[in-house]
Amino acid sequence: MNEALLLHSVQNRLNDFYARRIAKLSALDLKKTLKRKNPYLFRAVGLLDANEVIDRLLRDFMSSSDETIFGDAFFEPLAKDLAAGTSSPTEGVDIVMESETSYKAIAVKSGPSVFNAQSRRRQNQEFQALRSRMMKLQKHFEAIVGYSYGKKTSAPNENRIFAEMAGQTFWAELTGDKDCYLKIIGAMQDLPVRHKDRFNEEWAKAKNRFAKEFIADFCDDDGAINWNRLLEFNSGSK
Q1: I want to staple 219 with a disulfide (CB 3.0 to 4.6 A). Which of 123, 139, 152, 215 is the partner?
Q2: 166-213: pLDDT as tens digits
Q3: Strand pairing partners for 87?
Q4: CB atoms within 10 A of CB 34
């Protein structure tokens, strides 16, 4: 594996990841976010002031958003950069590794819990459609779903034609380097720390912006949260 390429790719992907995180945070809207949350839960866990509510909202949002952003901005393009293959234009397949005798189709996923029954079935159908088109080439066809972290590894079975590989196994399959998964995290160096200051600035601005709006709309004059008003906004009939 070309380690200069690894370093360059990892750092570019981190730059993109943080740019997308900050853009998400900057564009976040309090009212839209509150409409998707559970006011009963906020009350039940004893949130007492606007800052506690806002902190909970922001942390919940970023926790769910980061996993998706990281898969799209970091793992998937990094895998394409490092693979000894080419990007695939086929639906449901990210990378193709082709030789004179074999055709290997790889779908890159972030973590091992991305599938439900419907999406797993759809992934299998996409591989089956590609295999049907490849039959005329008379090459050995292999389909792989690769998870960027975790330990999930399994062979094809009667319900699916694709193998599953995760973590070290997946990155080694992709690059031929059994230590690739370790080298990826090492290549991050101090870049996350350097990005963190900029992100924290945006976090503070979002928190202040949300708190100002929340207090104006959902707090009484004495500063107490007006739970009835919040619940009417969230769940009341139009």
Answers
A1: 215
A2: 999 999 999 999 999 999 999 999 999 999 999 999 999 999 999 999
A3: 95
A4: 20
The total of other beta-carbon atoms located within 10 Å of residue 56's CB is 15
Q: Which residue has the tokens 């591989």?
A: 127
Alpha carbon distance 237, 220 (integer Å): 22
Q: Kindly state the helix (H) or strand (E) to which residue 62 belongs, with its residue range.
A: helix 50-70
Q: What's the DSSP call for residue 18?
A: H
Q: Say if CB 79 and CB 91 are below 8 A apart.
A: no
Query: How are the residues of the chain apportioned to helix, strand and coil, as percentages rounded to the nearest 5?
Result: 60, 15, 25
Nearest to 175 by CA among 99, 82, 78, 55: 82
With beta carbons less than 8 A apart as the criterion, state whether 37 and 57 touch.
Answer: yes
> 44-79, pLDDT tens digit by residue?
999 988 999 999 999 999 988 998 899 899 999 999
Task: Name the residue among 83, 145, 148 with its Cα closest to residue 111.
Answer: 148
Instruction: Give 86-175's CATH code, choosing from 3.40.1560.10, 3.20.20.140, 3.10.490.10, 3.40.50.300.
Output: 3.40.1560.10
